[in-house]
């Protein structure tokens, strides 16, 4: 729970209010804590006020009805309707479906009324409702739908392909109470504003709300804002519009397309490979990228090559530092030494040669700042700099967008909408940034004209802005106390990147020196070269520099300072440095580089990158090793089967073209049903052929032991909650055992006496902890990950305290991980307890 706050409910019960660190949803936990000590308890609770109101209104029927209505409107999470009877029904429904609503009424960001609702505003999340509600003020009631309220049925394909691909939607079970409350509120409202997110998915949520809650379209408007600030909210509500059905149809077509592909191919995988697998139009392409790259790595044959550097120094200066120059040509031929024997003959000649400068070129190089973040570049930079997964990045960004309580301003969105592929920046935001840069850094750091950036992503279609802070004056250090660590780190990245994008270019002084060498002054066939660059003007680098991609080598020229050299100047040779190298295979994908590849191919959209990267790991198609994504055996099997039988679905360009057609639907250029028909009917034919042609490839990994009940081999099976060990004769024999992930680390409690070792375990809610393989006979557990090395001081168990520090649980001695002796950590193995 983030930002916990001790409060009392209207009934006087103690509780703690906060937000979920993953999705930003409001959380409320009942019970007293130390933080309640000294906190003033409400003098009159809602329950106490209710009978008092009844007692004081017995004198007049009219006053009695009004008091009863007012009391119930105060205690229930529902605004009173026109009559007392409707008020009673709404209050009773709310109390029965959400017992915590009274305590968390203020968390919903809703305003309360004793009469008609007036103007009802519906957003997605309670955090967003709270932020929007404070800007709208009285007269508005803001409610949260808590995400999607209606979707295709899970238990069936839910698309009538013979009836123009008519979808079968239903309200999700966990959203029925939410929809019921929204429907009641909508019936009592004079005006209704659907203020869901400003993209296709947000447009579709608004449309589903309209139908699920039976909202009257005649009194309903759609409002769109890209940042949650007072000016943006006011501007949006001053210019409402109708729901854009082209955007809705584009999202609807995507959802139906993904269901047609995913449902049918998933069913095929369950019957041919194993259960609990899944397939998807975008996720399958992502797996193919990783599988294809892995096969490139496996097929790669390293080639040996050699380079030759000469360490040189000025003849007339003892103070000048030596420098390295590389041999680039011999005569008119480029250097290409494939083995050591090709280098050796030249060493003897060069040892006896004279070296002289033949050319000196000075110049300037300009480096422009990077554009503000889009969804993909934010995910890439957060991965490189902060080690965040794409899923974690988007969860934190959602919190920053929906609103953070920053003190006197109240709850305000700190960044603009975070699902975007646009690089556009509003003139107002640029003007504010330029004023800040001039005042903070000086006029020379502010360019004469505000820079403009063009979107480069294939099929970019979002109309809103790049990701930027909603107010440049809210510097990260100013709001740090109000933010969690993750929120601060990500906000700091967004703020620095945006401000730097509006600053002047950095300028470098460059120097390139060509040097010839040979046995005689008139016979110098060996051509060496050295380059260097130094910063002349920092420009945007005074604030921000993009992190280097893991796969890009450092530029040796940057920062290299060379002595003053002139043409025809003679140089002294200190030594020759031949060096062996080997060509490297293409790098495996990281989460950051995979997102970049998907964007470059035009596959997926900003809202799909994070879930795609997450699901291919959750489904165990891909494993992460040292931050690199490697396909599993299951991933290879599924990929090869799909590539062979569904070449269109698995083709990069075809998938990108489908995204383009969805864009045309969003722009109103084509109808969505014919577009789906052109894809589906050929796909259906291939599906029928695949069902007959694909052989049974059921995966069964044997454990190496026999079943204790029937003697048949035990195998690893897959269930709803992951892997487990079961009998190969299932369903005749239903023996099962838990599957343990062994760490190869002795149990500190019972290893000496009983041979126990530590294994990875998980709670029912999925939290990882570490315990003994002999549980319940040995109950040793640790929330902190054990280190493979024993304590150098006492031999006890070391556990991780942070990324680079460990501590012994026996003697308490702490160590830095780099100070520990290297130990090759054994691969985790699976076995039964």
Walk me through what this model shows.
Helix content is 33%, strand content 24%. With 833 residues, the protein is an alpha+beta fold. The strands form ten sheets. It has a six-stranded antiparallel β-barrel. It has a five-stranded antiparallel sheet with strand order 30-29-28-27-35, with no helix packed on it. Helix 11 packs antiparallel against helix 15. The longest helix has 28 residues, at 245-272. It starts with a strand and ends with a strand.
Distance between the termini: 34 Å
Number of distinct beta strands = 35
Low-pLDDT segments: 44-115, 825-833
Into which percentage range does the β-strand content fall? 15-25%
Helix content: 25-40%
Biggest sheet statistics: 6 strands, antiparallel, barrel
What is the count of DSSP helices, taking H or I runs of 4+ residues?
20
Query: Could you give the order of strands across the largest sheet?
Result: 12-13-19-18-15-20
Radius of gyration: 33 Å
Averaging pLDDT over every residue, what do you get? 84
Shape: globular
Write the layout of secondary structure elements.
Blueprint (H helix, E strand, L loop, with lengths): L1 E7 L5 E6 L6 E5 L15 H11 L4 H15 L8 H14 L20 E6 L2 H11 L3 E5 L5 E3 L6 E2 L5 E2 L1 E3 L4 H12 L1 E6 L5 H13 L7 E3 L7 H9 L6 H28 L8 H19 L4 E11 L8 E8 L2 E2 L5 H12 L2 E14 L7 H12 L3 H13 L1 E2 L5 E2 L14 H15 L43 H17 L4 E13 L7 E12 L32 E13 L8 H11 L7 H10 L3 E4 L2 E4 L1 H13 L6 H15 L5 H22 L7 E6 L6 E7 L2 E6 L8 E2 L1 E8 L4 H4 L2 E6 L5 E5 L8 E2 L3 E5 L6 E6 L2 E4 L5 E3 L12 E4 L1
Parallel strand pairs: 4-5, 4-10, 10-11
Antiparallel strand pairs: 1-2, 2-3, 6-9, 7-8, 12-13, 12-20, 13-14, 13-19, 15-18, 15-20, 16-17, 18-19, 21-22, 23-24, 24-25, 25-26, 27-28, 27-35, 28-29, 29-30, 31-32, 32-33, 33-34
Helix pairs in contact: 1-2, 2-3, 6-8, 8-18, 8-19, 9-16, 9-17, 11-14, 11-15, 12-14, 12-16
